[in-house]
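User: I'll paste a sequence; please echo it back and then give the predicted structure.

Assistant: Echoing your sequence first, then the prediction.
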Amino acid sequence: MSQASKLALLKEMIDSAESNIRSAKQILSEMTGRKSSKTEYAKAAKELEPLGEEGEGDKIIEGVFNGETMVDKNGKIYPVPANYASKSKLIPGDVLKLTIKEDGSFQYKQIGPIERKRIIGVLTYENSQYKVIANGKAYKVLLASVTYFKAEVGDKITLVVPSLEDSEWGAIENVLPLGAAEIEE
């Protein structure tokens, strides 16, 4: 068997193993009654202090970022522009304020960043989703971050994740240059 064939087979085996682990975790979550992340973020949003009105006709909503969207205290989902989330390096658990202007435009502001930690991993692409594999776990990352940093599969990535809780998502902070001194993980 050629070297290329062995590598392709090895990659296929690893992808299959990762998929099986994700499926097993999902079944375990369902069996143990673990609540969905939507419910968890809505619960976190309920604990937020209410804000007053910002301007005449403006509506203010607070919520918690879940990796892609904002969830308010009622569990309602609001789209967060990927460019804003990427530029602001938002991670799950960050508190956001959404101002819906009279003209219908949305304006987001990060008002409560959660505690963060940085880890180093490798960028991968699987099932139409970019991920960073770090510390034995796959963290989803936004496509906007990957394109902004011009990252490519196989690049080493500095990833920002919540420090106190487990998360499916992370935010790309930097792409480590190829040929740079090896950084211990």
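The first strand starts at residue 59 and ends at 65. Strands lie at 59-65, 69-72, 77-79, 95-100, 106-112, 116-126, 129-134, 137-140, 156-162, 171-175.
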